[in-house]
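Field reference: sequence -> structure
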Amino acid sequence: MTNASSTPCLKLAIAPYMPYMYVDGPDDNPIVRGSQPAVLDIIFNHLGYCYEYVVVPSRSGGIRLPNGTWTGFMGMLLRKEVDMSGVPIAITIERNEDVAVTEFLYIDGWSAGFQRPVVQSDISGFVKPFSDYVWLLIAAAIVGVLATILFVYMSHEAIVGLSQHPKRGTSTFGASRASGDKWRKSTPDHAQESALWTIALFLAQSVTKLPRGNSVRVITGIWLLVSLILNTVYRSNLKAMLILPKVVLPFDNPEELAETGIATWIPGGSALHNAGLKSPPGSTLTRILQHSNSLNKATDVPWGIRGMVAGEHVMISPRRSLAAIMHETFSKTGQCFFYVMSEDILGMMQFSILLRKDSPFKAELDPVIRRLREFGILDYELRKQIFNATECQKPIGSQGARKLRPLDLGDFYGVFMLYAGGALMALVSFLMELLLFKFKDQMERNNDYLGYTVDSSVSNYKLQKLQGHSIHGLDG
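Structure field:
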């Protein structure tokens, strides 16, 4: 493409760099589109220059080789094959040392995109109406109420219990035992009643017994009100939490990406590639580069996009480039095929046009670029290329307004588990009641038999002694 003018045309090195520039067709007659062609038209029409595009064979920014030479954009610029780069390039220390840069056009950071995770059912939703901190407070409240009621009962028994206890030293063993049994039967099971009034009320279950004593009635009354409020809030949020979809991201920061060991697609000669080469061994960026499947190949953006959507590798690129891919796929299909992690692998970097150190164009380009940036024209042209990406940049579970997700069986697993747990607890309680009843009945039978044996022995002893006195009297 050329911009006709009587002055000699400038040669601009270009390569695909979404969303700034898309390059299709053969290298000798490329079809160029994106935000940067419109910006270049504004700049060079204002300055009065014509220009033509020169496609970089490697289609990369270029790296500095051990002998000091450069590949990609940088090599062509330093060999004077082109006058400047036609697309904004991320500025690194090495590039800034060897070439001149214009005023920055954009600021962007490098992140990673990967296949969009499938929305899953959350079977743990029945514990999510309250946060972990609230559940701990509820557990502490249950223990506190239980201990308080039990303490009041035990204190009351310690004060008035002696007056109800049979006096020691009664005339007969049988009478003492019978009185003791009567006292023991009239003494309540304080632990059982305390647990009943604490746990049963919290679970909104009916209680057949009434609390004894004003102190216990006040405590249970307050606990009844608190339990009502907690249960009302819990039930109101339970349904929403049970059917709320759960999204498990494979990674959401550079450290997690390095730990997964997933293959990564990284443009060769890019700013991130150069930063990775300078990173110390064992660093997060070094480990990410170790899994790259693209650095020893020619940059093939369509192949990188297909592999990312298919889940074959992670695509690492500037955020705006990933947003451009989202825009393209959503515009064509109406669907979002991948997500972008929330953190950056490489911090914010300036994107500028590259020039040679001795280039006279820097003084002309800088004022124009500064005014375009400050008036928002650069941002306007850029957003025209990625406006549909906003839909895919929303949280993954938030697209319900556009398309409702039908519920499946997994959405009700939490409900089934809740009901099954309640039924299991009821069954265990029933079996424990049966066992305790049989044990208690057996103990009472043994006690009755022991009492009957003792009473019979005493009666026989008295009868034998009485008979002995009678015989002695007759003999005398």
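Note: DSSP finds 16 helices and 13 strands in the chain.
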